[in-house]
Automatic annotation (TrEMBL):
It comes from the Bacteria. Gene3D superfamilies: Dihydrofolate Reductase, subunit A (3.40.430.10). This is Dihydrofolate reductase. It comes from Nocardia bhagyanarayanae. Residues 3-161 form the Bacterial bifunctional deaminase-reductase C-terminal domain. GO terms for molecular function: 5-amino-6-(5-phosphoribosylamino)uracil reductase activity. It holds the Pfam family RibD_C. GO terms for biological process: riboflavin biosynthetic process. InterPro entries: DHFR-like_dom_sf, RibDG_C, Riboflavin_Biosynth_HTPR.
Length: 188
């Protein structure tokens, strides 16, 4: 069965983006970027790949499907940001995309995820945002948290929902020259 993996950047105070959807405040490092590109190429948007030296047709290694909330989808300003993945935007208030490569789902995201988990393929990447992550908290099988040494102060939390403590077990951790860490967590 496929896993739902929430792979996301987070500030020390738990925000995935600023109040206006900003995500450019994370300190970057060449060693971290190179490692991510080599091991997790999927999050690199398709139109940006040539600008970074990544071939557009770089094979998917981990995921072949991406789930996004409306805010996450709109933040990129591209109608098909991840053309190399099957793309779903979960929103009850969003007009369907004009791009046939993006499927807008107005219904229950839990039902969608349970159906996707039963299909063949690589795992499913939960890209964001915080509201969608909170709705899918019980379906998340793995967290991959890129924790950056920055305090945002306010913004969009990693999980924007009800108080529902859920235990995950750290599996491994890496640190990079910018003092950011990537930590893998499995559902306990």
């Amino acid at each position: 069965m496929r896993k739902l993996v929430y792979y996301v950047a987070v500030s020390l105070d738990g925000y995935i983006a600023g109040p206006g959807g900003e995500f450019d405040f994370y300190p970057l490092a060449d060693d971290m970027s190179a490692w991510i590109d080599a091991h997790y190429p999927e999050p690199m948007p398709t139109p940006i790949r040539p600008l970074t030296g990544m071939p557009v047709d770089t094979p998917n290694k981990n995921w072949d499907t991406v789930l996004m909330g409306r805010g996450t989808y709109e933040a990129g300003g591209i109608t098909s940001p991840y053309a190399h993945l099957k793309q779903y935007v979960v929103s009850s208030s969003f007009d369907p995309s004009n791009d046939p490569a993006v499927e807008v789902v107005a219904g229950d995201p839990v039902t969608l995820v349970r159906e996707l988990k039963q299909a063949d393929g690589l795992d499913i990447w939960l890209c964001g945002g915080g509201n969608l992550a909170a709705q899918l908290a019980d379906e998340i099988d793995e967290l991959i948290i890129k924790s950056y040494p920055v305090v945002a102060g306010s913004g969009i939390p990693a999980f924007a929902g009800a108080f529902t403590p859920t235990l995950f077990t750290p599996a491994r951790r890496m640190e990079f020259s910018n003092n950011a860490q990537v930590t893998w967590y499995s559902r306990a």
